[in-house]
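Example 3.2
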Amino acid sequence: MLIFSGISNPYVRLALAITICGAVCLAPMCASARSRRSGRGKSSAAAAAARRQAMIQQAQAQIAAAQTVLSAAESQGGNAQTQLTSSLSKMQQATDAFKQAHETEHGLLKELTEIEHEILGEQSVDTPYGRAATEIAQAKRELASIKAQLLSQSDVSTKLIGLKGVALTTAANEVLESHQPYLFALLRVRTAGREIDDVRTALFRADEDWRQTSEALTQVRQDIDSAKQQAIVTGFARMKPLHEYRKASDAAAAARTVIAQAEGVLQSLNATNKPPAASSKKK
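Structure, written as tokens:
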């Protein structure tokens, strides 16, 4: 090969060949890891959009079900209570649907964690992340060694005998923090920790799939928080199970609370209560 021309030392040639081989083998692995997650970000964004649309539809369904309860509460006749009970059951089903939002949140969080593991797994020892990981590992080993040496000294161990829990931790920290080598080692660990956090953050933000998935997760969490806030403001969060509202007047009050909460959710999602129009038959 031309790349080896002019290199007479066989050991140097062997080392160079191993290095090239390693690089060639590593490249497909990194490309494969990237291809495995290619498109995840778009899928995550689609999941967040679908979850938002589902919340809108669920809020609209809540309003429709609650309006049915109001009608049933005002009805008279022999089957009025049966209608009210049935309407309350449907309203309960509509309100329970909001709990599904957390399933989307957990799924996106799992997806984001997997992407992060893949990104970090692509980093070799000679990358900024690899060097930062080596530094923090060495710093932690140094700190642990100094700590063990200090606490094993006879005068120190005698001082700590009989202490437990918070008292032991406090006394040990007082000993450690009075020694400069320990403080220097602790500073090294903290500095290395900040460094690897910065490198990790930069890697994640440079990855398109990570950014899209992170944004999708943030959006879903904001939507969930908005729904929770509306539940608190309207009193929805303090409501009893809807089947317990047996009296018509109580059921009507509960229905109005459900409507207020659902309308607040729609407003926070920049949506309106426009349920699908009833289909009409051609004459």
